[in-house]
Amino acid sequence: MSKYMLRLILFSLLLGGLPTVFIGIVSYYSASKDIIENARESKMQLLIQTQMGVEENLKSMEMSACNLLKSGEKHIKAPSRNPIHGHSATGWIFLWTFTHHKLQNKNSSEGYR
Question: Can you tell me the distance from the alpha carbon of 28 to that of 73, in angstroms, rounded to the nearest whole number?
């Protein structure tokens, strides 16, 4: 093979292969960037859904505690002024929630330290 033919083949391979390799590298990086962005968005959506579920559970528990407190207030015996002497579970729940709310109100009026 002549020197001219070898140079022609080498030049044509370089001229045809270089743009193909360059386009492949650019498309790989752009596609990987899109895939990473989609993965981040799906993870954020999952985190938001989880957060909303936790908030809903907390609200449900708060409503249940309030309903339990309200039902406990109805069942406390009137002559017993101290819930400890009532020996009922609702008395204990009322005592705990009453002192808990009293402490919360005291702390909120003093402010956080």
Answer: 67
**The one-letter amino acid at 87:** H
Residues 3 and 58 in one domain: yes
Dmax (CA) for the chain in angstroms is 118
Residue 59 and residue 100 in one domain? no
Q: Where are the alpha helices (DSSP H) in the chain?
A: 3-75, 89-110
**81 and 61 in a common domain:** no
Find the Cα–Cα–Cα–Cα dihedral 77, 78, 79, 81, rounded to 10°.
Answer: 90
> What is the spatial distance between Cα 30 and Cα 95, in angstroms, rounded to a whole number?
63
pLDDT, tens digit (0-9, with 9 covering 90-100), for 34-73: 999 999 999 999 999 999 999 999 999 988 888 888 887 6
Task: Output the CA–CA distances (angstroms, integers) from residue 45 to 36, 38, 39, 53, 54, in the order listed.
Answer: 14, 11, 10, 12, 14
Q: Which two tokens stand for residue 87?
A: 């020996």
